[in-house]
Amino acid sequence: MQPKLSNRSLLIVAIVSCLLYTVFLFYFIPKDPAQSNSALFIENTDILPIQEHPDYGLPVILKIPSIDVDSTVEQVGLTSDGAMDVPKTRDNVAWFSLGSRPGEVGSAVMAGHYGIKDGKGSVFDNLHKLNKGDKLYIEDEKGIITTFVVRESRRFDSQADATKVFGSNDGESHLNLVTCEGIWDEASGGYTQRLVVFTDKK
Fold first, then answer.
1. What is the DSSP letter of 196?
2. From the candidate CATH numbers 2.40.260.10, 3.40.50.2020, 1.10.10.10, 3.40.50.1100, the one assigned to the domain spanning 33-201
3. pLDDT at 141
4. Which of 3, 10, 104, 131 reaches 20 to 30 Å from 169, CA-CA?
């Protein structure tokens, strides 16, 4: 005849089981690729422009017809580790509010997620399909629409200094779009590369 466990023993077993399960979930279940950090690291914040915005309102909508993007724009700054923050949802894009506004002289930057969750993709899943000459449109809070044209795409290592993405000195207006790319890395919980699409104001 097997000995019976007391109620106290059963309670202790249940608590220990819950703790072990929580540890398993935290360390061993793969993180959601759709929520991975698509940010870029900025080692030199001195390149960011002085904030003067007489002509352009805050960006509110990004449209890229060639890849079916019609997205709400969030405002983000820097994370505690010096990277551009990312949008809260997979459907939105994030504008780096410490930099230029789209349409102003300088390089405005927007980031979006990449990856699939619950069978649904993210806003920049098809960013790699943009070609030179493709157009995108930013609508600001004043209802003004500014057109940009794709110039080129580049890939960066996920830990690389991408300061050049956030600044320019050519006296022109640019909008640079950022997302993840490459191979999913379980150790870091993110993709190995960042895709940046560089565009110029038309």
1. E
2. 2.40.260.10
3. 95
4. 131
